[in-house]
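[Primary structure, fold]
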Amino acid sequence: MTISLSKGELIRENNFIGGLWVPATDGAQFTVTNPATGEVVTNVANSGPADARAATNAAAQAFPMWRDTLPKERAAVLRRWHALILENANSLGELISLEQGKPLAEGRGEVAYGASYVAWFADEATRIYGDIIPQQQRGKRMTAVKEPVGIVAAITPWNFPLAMIARKIAPALAAGCTVVAKPAEDTPLTALALALLAHEAGVPAGVLNVISASRDHAVATVADWLEDSRVRKITFTGSTPVGKYLARESASTLKKLSLELGGNAPFIVFDDADLDAAVTGLLAAKFRNGGQTCVCPNRVYVQDGVYERFAALLSERVAELKVAPATDPAAQIGPMINVRALEKIARHVDDAVRHGARVLTGGNRLPELGPHYFAPTVLADATPDMALCCEETFGPVVPLFRFSDEAEAVQAANDTPFGLASYFYSQDVRRINRVGRQLEAGIVGINEGALASEAAPFGGVKESGYGREGSKYGLDDYLSIKYLCQGGLD
C-alpha cells in the first residue's frame, strides 16, 4: 500500500472513534500552539467523559474480532502502518516540530525511532508462546497460554509525541488488545496523524481510538476510563504524582498498570574516564530535545581530579550549541514546551546561584528568539541543598557536583526516590562491574549516553514506576496468562 500525505492532510482536528473522525460530544475545542512562536496552529476537540466512554464502547465492540485475528494478520497490519509512517516521515517530523518545538532533525529522528517500535512488535506478534507443563498426574494435561488483557488506555506525554504513543499502541495491537488513547494536551496532532495512518494501514474500526482533551478536561475524561471495568490496563508515561493518582484511582477495578514516571538521573565521571567521550556522551544524553526527556542526566557528579578540566571541556561544547526554532536547519536546541517549563528552569538556575553555584555558560532566557527559549547552561559547584538536586529540571541545564571517591558517588547517585536511568564513565573494568550492580535504576548507561532501542527494555524502579516498554519483555505487559487443565484423558 502506498500513500503520500502532505502535512496539511495529516492535521486532524476531531477525535478518532470507531473508525470515524468526530467532534467532541458538546462541540468544545481547545487551541494547539507552536511553542517556538506562541502562534495558534489549530483548534482540536476538547473531549469529556462522554467522549471517553464512546471510545471505550468502540474498543469493546472491536475487541472480540481483533483478539481472534491471527497473529500473522495483526503483524501484517502493523507492518503496513510502519511503512506508512516512514513514507510520511518528513511531514510527521515537521508536525512534531510544529507542535512540540524540537529541531526538525530531531523531529525526523523521532519518527524513525517511534516507527522502529511498530516494526519490532509486528514481529513479536507472531512470537507469543505458551507452555506445556510437564505432566503431574495421569490423565491430566496442563498448559499455559497467553491472551490479550483487553482494552488498553494509553496516556502519553508531550516530549515525544510520536515515539511514546507508538511504543504503547504497537505492543497492544500486536498482543490482540484494543486501545483508547489520550495524548498530551500540548501535542495532540501527532497522535491523531498516527491514527489516520493506522486507519489507512487497515487497522479495523474501533481497534484504535484517539481523543484529545485540554488540561482542564483531562482529569474528568481519563476518570471515565479509570472507573470503567471494561478497560483492563492503563499504560502511562509522565510525572510520578500523576502515576500515583492513576494507580489509586484504578484500584477499584484492579487494572494492570505500566507506569514510566519521573526521573532524576545521575551521570558520574570517574577520574579514569575518557573525558572527551564523557563530554560527548553527556551532550547526547542531556541536550536531546533541549533536556526535556525523562532519562536526561539531572545531576552530573565529577571526581575531584578531573573536575575543572571536565567543566572547561563541557562548557566550551555547550556554548557552541545553536539555539533556534525548528525552521532554522542549524538548530540544535529549540524552545521549551510552554511558559510553565521555562519558569521552572529559571527558578532552578536562580536558586542554584543563590546557593553558591557558578554559571560557566548560559543561565539566561533568550526572549529575542521567542517566548519559551532558555540558553544551554552549565553550573559549577552544585550542592545537595539546591532545588535542582532533588527536582527534575526538564531543561538544558547541567549542574556539576564534585565527589572524591567511588562510594560517595554511588551513594549520592542513589540518594533519590527515583530510579529510571543512570550513567557513568570509567575505563576500570572492575569498577564498571561494581558500579553497574550498585546503581539503583532500571536503565544504566556505561560509557554511553544514547540508551534507547526498540530491542531493549525501557522502564524504571522505585518511584520511576514499573513495567517495561520495548524488547521481548514489552509485550508481556499486554498479556495475561491462562492455565488450562484438561482431565479424563486416560
About this structure: The chain has two domains: 7-261+464-484, 265-453. The chain has a mean pLDDT of 96. Residues 104-124 form the longest helix (21 residues).
